[in-house]
Every structure is written in structure tokens, then in C-alpha cells.
């Protein structure tokens, strides 16, 4: 079955983490996934605490554009994933908000109905492509002596009744996807805790404490690599200069296991 999605990179990937975007597109090509670039705007997350309705409208406009193309949205950014899912949830449960948003969308000839799904790249790899299929594409597996810590990020996990991503406190999807690369995953107690990036601008000292706590925990668990599937986590870990652990995104990890580079 041909898999096809509208590709939603989000602002950070497009402007600051182009390496994550490039490896994601390469991985999708290697796995036979088709994607379409649409004229999306920001997911709405940055203005969520200034105007919730403006944030929801921003998300709804993206979802309406993808609905018009009859495609589910796939994003490698967990922040975008979380805000799109939150907005979808609010629109489903607030008829007045749903009406107001659609009245504004009609000014552009758009309508939001809620007919598409929002998927993170891990959802697509695990549920849609499937681990068995990915295994058949692994030509350059990592040695079993390579130990990887999966860093989940916050936005996809909680609240679980909104995101429907995985168990909010004991998830397994990320480790299962990593395992097909040949590398071994490690359990580390802080794997689902915040990396500290969201508080960096207001409290950089606290942000660094949270980051160093996670890094120390991963090292103590025996990790050689921290693997992320969250743009903000990637930015936070990269601030270390990768001098304590190697930092890779899931798309970089799998791309290397498939293509060798």
C-alpha cells in the first residue's frame, strides 16, 4: 500500500534544523513514503499563551489545507504535533470555537471538518510502515554494542487523551523503532522528563540544570547516543556541542542504518 502524507516540517526545522528535515525526507524516500509540500503556516504553538483562539485558528488553517488535499499530516516536530493535536481536540469538543474558526476560514475558501489524522514521524514508522518492513531495508545495522537512549520529548506524550501517542509515563514506541537499526536501547529514568528547552529564554540556569540532569542520567544508563524525535530536544542537546554524548535524530539514525551514511 502506498503511503502518502502532507509534510509539515514546522518553523524550527525549516529555519534552524534543516539537517533534521533533510534526513527525514531522505528516510521517507528510502522507505517508499510519498509526501507533498503544501503552503502551511506556523502550527500556532508560539502564540498559544498569548491567544489560545489565534493558536487554534493557525492550526486549523493548516489542517483545512491538508483536508483539501485529502491527506493526513505527518510532522517530525513533536511541538507541532502536540499543538495540532490539541487544536483538533478543542475544535472537536467546543462547537462555538469550531464555528468561529470556520467562519474565518471561509474568508479564504477553506473549511475544517476534522476528517484527517495528525501523525508524528514515529507514528508513521511504527504503525503505518511497520517494523518488519523497516527491518528489510536495514543494510548497515549498528553493532549490538551501540547503546541508544531514546529521548521522548514532552509534547507528544501528555495529555495522552489528547495526543493518543503512547503510554504517557511508560512509552515503548521510540525504543521499538530504534531497535530495528541493530542498536540496543537503554532504560533511563529521565527519558520522559523535559529537556529544559522550553524554559531556556526565561531561566537559562534552570534549563541547563534540567539538561545536565538528563545527560548524566543517560550516561549512567550506559548510552553512547541520545536519539531525539523532537526539534526542541535536538536544539537543547546540540547546545552541549555533543562533547558528552552523540546526539542523533531518529531519521538520521535509521537513514544511516539503511544507506550507510
Brief digest:
With 261 residues, the chain is of the alpha/beta class. The protein has helices at 11-15, 18-30, 52-68, 78-93, 95-105, 121-129, 131-137, 160-163, 173-179, 204-220, 231-238, 250-259; strands at residues 3-7, 33-37, 73-75, 118-120, 147-151, 184-185, 225-228, 246-249. The strands form two sheets. Strands 2-1-3-4 form a four-stranded parallel beta sheet, with helices on both faces.
Describe the structure.
The chain is an alpha/beta fold and 261 residues long. The protein folds into two domains: 3-121, Glutathione S-transferase Yfyf (Class Pi), Chain A, domain 2 (Up-down Bundle); 139-259, Rossmann fold (3-Layer(aba) Sandwich), CATH 3.40.50. Helix content is 48%, strand content 12%. The chain has twelve helices and eight strands. Strands 2-1-3-4 form a four-stranded parallel β-sheet, with helices on both faces. Strands 6-5-7-8 form a four-stranded parallel β-sheet, with helices on both faces. Helix 2 packs across helix 12 (250-259), helix 6 packs across helix 7 (131-137) and helix 6 packs across helix 9. The longest helix is centred in the N-terminal third of the chain and has 17 residues, at 52-68. The mean pLDDT is 95.
The overall number of domains is 2
Task: Give the helix tally.
Answer: 12
Low-confidence stretches: none
Question: Main sheet, how many strands, which sense, barrel?
Answer: 4 strands, parallel
Radius of gyration: 18 Å
Q: Please state how the strands of the largest beta sheet are arranged side by side.
A: 2-1-3-4
The CATH architecture assignment of the largest domain turns out to be: 3-Layer(aba) Sandwich
Helix-and-strand structural type: alpha/beta
CATH topology of the largest domain: Rossmann fold
Helix content: 40-55%
Distance between the termini: 27 Å
Overall 3D shape: globular
Would you tell me the overall average pLDDT? Answer: 95
Strand content: 5-15%
The total count of strands amounts to: 8
SSE arrangement, N to C: EHHEHEHHEHHEHHEHEHEH
CATH class of the largest domain: Alpha Beta
Amino acid at each position: 500500500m502506498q503511503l502518502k502524507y502532507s509534510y509539515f516540517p514546522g518553523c524550527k526545522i525549516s529555519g534552524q534544523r534543516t539537517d533534521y528535515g533533510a534526513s527525514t525526507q531522505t528516510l521517507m524516500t528510502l522507505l517508499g513514503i510519498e509526501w507533498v509540500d503544501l503552503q502551511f503556516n506556523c502550527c500556532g504553538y508560539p502564540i498559544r499563551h498569548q491567544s489560545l483562539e489565534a493558536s487554534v485558528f493557525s492550526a486549523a488553517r493548516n489542517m483545512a489545507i491538508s483536508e483539501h488535499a485529502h491527506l493526513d499530516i505527518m510532522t517530525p516536530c513533536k511541538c507541532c504535533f502536540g499543538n495540532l493535536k490539541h487544536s483538533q481536540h478543542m475544535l472537536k469538543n467546543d462547537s462555538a470555537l469550531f464555528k468561529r474558526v470556520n467562519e474565518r476560514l471561509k474568508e479564504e475558501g477553506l473549511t475544517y471538518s476534522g476528517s484527517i489524522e495528525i501523525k508524528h514521524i514515529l507514528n508513521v514508522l511504527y504503525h503505518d510502515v511497520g517494523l518488519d518492513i523497516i527491518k528489510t531495508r536495514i543494510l548497515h545495522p549498528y553493532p549490538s554494542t551501540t547503546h541508544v537512549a531514546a529521548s521522548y520529548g514532552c509534547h507528544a506524550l501528555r495529555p495522552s487523551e489528547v495526543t493518543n501517542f503512547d503510554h504517557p509515563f511508560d512509552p515503548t514506541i521510540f525504543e521499538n523503532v530504534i531497535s530495528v537499526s541493530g542498536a540496543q536501547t537503554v532504560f533511563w529514568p529521565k527519558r520522559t522528563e523535559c529537556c529544559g528547552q522550553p524554559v531556556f529564554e526565561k531561566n537559562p540556569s534552570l534549563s541547563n540544570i534540567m539538561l545536565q540532569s538528563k545527560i548524566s542520567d543517560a550516561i549512567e544508563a550506559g548510552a553512547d547516543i541520545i536519539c531525539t524525535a523532537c526539534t526542541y530536544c535536538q536544539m537543547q542537546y546540540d547546545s552541549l556541542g555533543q562533547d558528552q554524548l552523540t546526539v542523533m535524530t531518529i531519521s538520521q539514525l535509521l537513514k544511516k542504518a539503511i544507506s550507510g551514511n
